[in-house]
Amino acid sequence: MRFLYERQTRRFYVFLVTACIAQICLLGVCGIFQAQDIRRILVDRELAAASYLLAADVSPEVVAAAWNHREVTEEGVELLNKIGHTKQTYSYLLLTEQTYLPLILILLCVGLVFAAVILIGAARFFRHREQVYEDAGKVIARYAQNQFAMHLPAGETGTIYQLFGSIEQLAQSLQAKSEMEYKAKMFLRDMISNISHQIKTPIAALGMYMEIIMEESGNEDVVKEFSRKSAQSLERIEHLVQSLLKMARLNTGNIVFEKQKCFASEIVEQAVCDLLERARREGKRILTEGEPQGVLFCDSDWTKEAVGNLIKNALDHTEEGGVIRISWKQSPAVFRFNVEDNGCGIASEDIHHIFKQFYRSRTSSDRQGAGLGLSLAKGIVEGQGGSISVESRPGEGSIFKINFLI
User: Fold this and answer.
1) Domain extent for 218
2) 138 and 190 co-located in one domain
3) Using CA atoms, how far apart are residues 377 and 399, in angstroms rounded to an integer?
């Protein structure tokens, strides 16, 4: 009886059962009235026969005995055959014109009414079902055109609505895939635009440096100076390309974070090691502080990348003689990294935008960086289920906080 799980089908089935019960009750009532008519006719015939026999001087005792007599004799059968009252004509005898024709008409009317009710109910049921199928077809056609504003009927039971639910799940998958493809296209478009914009400056500077080196080839000091600047431009181009590739992999979901138990001191040491030379060259100090045995559950390489990007951002916004402090602390529920600097700080109008890709404040226009490091760090941390935040005061420095749940 699975077909009764659907509400409309269940209603139609109840309607059919009710109609059948109503017809049976109506026919029963008609039968009762018809039986009463037949009984009245038979009593009238008995009264007429008794009156005739009494008028013919037949004694009342004989008449009474005749009504109670049950034995059939050949003489009686022969007499009734002669007058045409046989078993073959018994129904006609009972159902005279007073009862026979009305009974046929009643049964015919009851049958017609019952058929009409069933046909009307079936027509309404199938019209409603056809409307459901038609509406579902329109919605599915829109799904095929990547239009997901409308939805199939839901909240009902039954096989057809289970099918609608499966189609809705498929449509949600198609919608998610379509949105991902759209975001990937938009990301690729923006990425190409930003790459061309970001890489244009170091390439132009590199070309200018090479022209100066060629023109001043005999001047050793000039050659050294602009060779150093050329190397810095090449390093910046390489860093920009690598950051863009990592950001592309992160945004398109091609990175699988392999989490395992890691020592925080090792992550920080590796992140700092790559930047010590730059800090020394720029006259800045990098200090670390934390429990040597502090352990967290994360992807070591990518977490090192995130911490390293925060340190690079601190170096970019700290003047000569500045200090960058990296600390970590483990609590019962959270493992936290802090990257603190005493640089220029972040303006209040910029602090809510600094994690956006390629975002650079007006005060950062003369500094290194392309606006990718913080966005990449945010993507790495949140991709592992962590969070990243910042506290800053202009002119006093900033504190970036990375939190991982234990």
Assistant:
1) 176-236
2) no
3) 14
Q: Which DSSP string corresponds to 174-187?
A: HHHHHHHHHHHHHH
Distance (Å, whole) CA 168 – CA 175: 10
Number of domains in the chain: 3
Amino acid of residue 286 = I
**Which strand (E) or helix (H) includes residue 42?**
helix 7-55
| DSSP string over 230-250 | HHHHHHHHHHHHHHHHHHHHH
Q: How far is Cα 246 from Cα 120, in angstroms, rounded to an integer?
A: 67
Identify the helix (H) or strand (E) that includes residue 257.
Answer: none
In the block, residue with structure tokens 């014109």: 97
Same-domain pairing of 210 and 267:
no
Q: What share of the chain is helix, strand, coil (3-state, %, to 5)?
A: 65, 10, 25
CATH classification of the domain holding 374:
3.30.565.10
* CB of 371 closer than 8 Å to CB of 388: no
Rounded Cα gap, residues 337 and 388, in angstroms: 9
Residue written as token pair 């100090």: 285
* Tens-place pLDDT, residues 187-240: 767 767 766 766 777 777 777 878 788 777 777 777 788 787 787 777 777 777
Intra-chain end-to-end CA distance of the chain, in Å: 52
